[in-house]
Amino acid sequence: MPRNQQIHLDNRPQGEAVASNFKLVTTDTPALADGQVLVRNHYLSLDPYMRGRMNDAKSYA
Fold first, then answer.
1. What is the rounded distance in angstroms from the CA atom of residue 25 to the CA atom of residue 8?
2. What is the C-alpha to C-alpha distance for residues 5 and 24, in angstroms, rounded to an integer?
3. d(CA 29, CA 61)
4. What is the reported pLDDT for 53?
5. Running DSSP on this structure, what letter comes out for residue 54?
6. Concatenated DSSP letters of 1-58
7. Backbone torsions φ then ψ of 5, nearest 5 degrees
8. pTM of the shown model
9. pLDDT of residue 49
């Protein structure tokens, strides 16, 4: 099974987000159950709105 790379928010940014606010975590990909599929993402779209979601504040969503 392939390895899974995840980018976790390690600490909340103060101002502009920088690389030290995140950490790269590598895990084993879980075994698939019957009827499940494994999808590989080649691209990920990050939108400016996501910066506001990093704050520790109540939000509309």
1. 7
2. 7
3. 29
4. 84
5. T
6. --EEEEEEE-S--SSS--GGGEEEEEEEPPPPPTT------S-----THHHHHTSSS-
7. -105, 130
8. 0.71
9. 82
Decide: 21 and 40 in contact? Cβ < 8 Å: no
Question: Comparing C-alpha atoms, which of 6, 5, 12 is closest to residue 57?
Answer: 12
Q: For residues 9 and 20, what is the distance between their CA atoms, to the nearest angstrom?
A: 9
Quote the DSSP letter at residue 7: E
CA nearest to 54, candidates 19, 21, 31 = 21
| Each residue's pLDDT tens digit, 27-41 | 999 999 999 999 988
- Cα–Cα distance, 55 to 11 (Å, whole number): 10
* Residue tagged 């990920």 (tokens): 44
- Residue 53: strand, helix, or coil: helix
34 SS3 class: coil
Report the distance separating Cα 48 and Cα 61, nearest Å: 15
